[in-house]
């Protein structure tokens, strides 16, 4: 599915990834995001500062009692900024 460079996708592939992301169980995305956060060694404050997002929003992503996950655009921004493949979330 990937094209030439690491984590580079065609528009069609990106659309398919977005559809898959949006249909993936939220608990899977939350669990994967938590693991990625540990693996790539970044925290909530890093996300707030690096991506200029609201702290309350970020807290919801990592609170298992809260069903909130990043919207696809924010998930993609996280992947690009911290250097992981968006597919790792799903």
Q: What does it look like?
A:
With 90 residues, the chain is mainly alpha-helical. It has one domain (11-89): Orthogonal Bundle (434 Repressor (Amino-terminal Domain)), CATH 1.10.260. Helices cover 60% and strands 0% of the residues. The chain has five helices and no strands. The chain has helices spanning 11-23, 26-39, 44-51, 55-62, 72-82. The protein is globular. The model has no long low-confidence stretch (mean pLDDT 91).
Could you give a quick summary of the protein structure above?
With 90 residues, the protein is mainly α. Helix content is 60%, strand content 0%.
Which short descriptors sum up this protein?
90 residues; mainly alpha; 434 Repressor (Amino-terminal Domain); 5 helices; 0% strand
Distance between the termini: 14 Å
The whole-angstrom Rg is 13 Å
Mean pLDDT: 91
Q: Which band does the percent of strand residues land in?
A: under 5%
**Biggest sheet details:** none
Just name the CATH architecture. Answer: Orthogonal Bundle
Structural class assignment: mainly alpha
- Number of continuous helical runs: 5
* Number of spatially distinct domains: 1
Number of strands: 0
Order of helices and strands: HHHHH
Uncertain spans, ≥5 residues at pLDDT below 50? none
The CATH topology label is 434 Repressor (Amino-terminal Domain)
Helix content: 55-70%
Look at the structure and give the CATH class: Mainly Alpha
Principal-axes shape call: globular
Task: Detail the topology: elements first, then pairings.
Layout: H1 11-23, H2 26-39, H3 44-51, H4 55-62, H5 72-82
